[in-house]
User: Which sequence fits this backbone?
């Protein structure tokens, strides 16, 4: 694993002018944020040694380097999922690589189903905490001390400063965001009504099939994380509609403008951005 991480990072460092301070992962239907990145350099995943290839509709499969609100960033236009058949090492390898090339903070987004009855389709939910139902950890196996400790602390998986700033930024932009607990499942099937009820009872507010492995790896490397879910469908007791991937993509795309505004407004005031160095 370490060899693949170094190989991919060395390739990206060899390209001129790429020095990102923040990493952004764009979930299903949320790739439109890249239109706001200026001075772009686009690197297809297929060009990067050791990178997997995304197979999910709505995930383009590029690294986009450039500037967002003046801050140098790299955006993953599409992520990798455990349900695609990749190992957890492959799913999280890009996060390791982005840390190796210099990012100081990680912004994660995803499309998620709402299981909190106060949520509506199109809401943004900043993630306060998560509940992990993935069958395997990305840290399973021998620990690599160069990357992080054997037993990383997870008392603050999502950076409290960034969560607070997300609320402040949204308020300045004229909209409110929800806050809650994200439940992560391996997928790729959507949940049954009984499962939705179970996850709500144990404290979940939204559910999806990504993000948590990336957060675990980021915290292993002491990388601050902000996570935001776009609520693309709501499934609560007594109101269960059929879910399709196409519906999720469409709902995420409609809410994308507010996610773009949130990330764009938050980056310049983040304590981990270069202007605060």
Assistant:
């Amino acid at each position: 694993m370490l060899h693949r991480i170094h190989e991919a990072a060395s390739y990206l460092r060899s390209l001129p002018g790429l020095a990102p301070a923040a990493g952004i992962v764009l979930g299903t239907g949320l790739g439109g944020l890249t239109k706001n990145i200026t001075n772009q350099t686009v690197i297809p995943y297929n060009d990067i040694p050791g990178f997997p290839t995304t197979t999910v509709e709505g995930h383009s499969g590029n690294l986009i380097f450039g500037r967002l609100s003046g801050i140098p960033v790299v955006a993953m236009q599409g992520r990798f999922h455990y349900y695609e058949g990749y190992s957890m090492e492959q799913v999280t390898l890009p996060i390791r690589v982005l840390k190796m090339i210099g990012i100081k903070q990680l912004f994660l987004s995803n499309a998620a189903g709402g299981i909190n009855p106060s949520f509506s389709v199109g809401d943004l939910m900043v993630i306060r905490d998560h509940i992990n139902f993935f069958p395997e950890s990305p840290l399973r196996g021998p620990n690599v001390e160069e990357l992080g400790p054997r037993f990383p602390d997870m008392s603050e998986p999502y950076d409290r400063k960034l969560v607070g700033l997300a609320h402040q930024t949204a308020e300045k932009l004229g909209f409110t965001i929800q806050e809650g607990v994200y439940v992560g499942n391996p997928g790729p099937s959507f949940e049954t009504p009984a499962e939705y009820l179970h996850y709500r009872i144990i404290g979940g507010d939204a559910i999806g099939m990504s993000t948590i492995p990336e957060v675990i790896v980021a915290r292993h490397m002491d990388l601050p994380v902000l996570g935001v879910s776009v609520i693309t469908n709501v499934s609560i007791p007594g109101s269960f509609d059929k879910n399709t991937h196409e519906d999720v993509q469409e709902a995420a795309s409609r809410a994308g403008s507010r996610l773009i505004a949130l990330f764009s407004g938050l980056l310049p005031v983040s304590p981990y951005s270069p202007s605060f160095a």
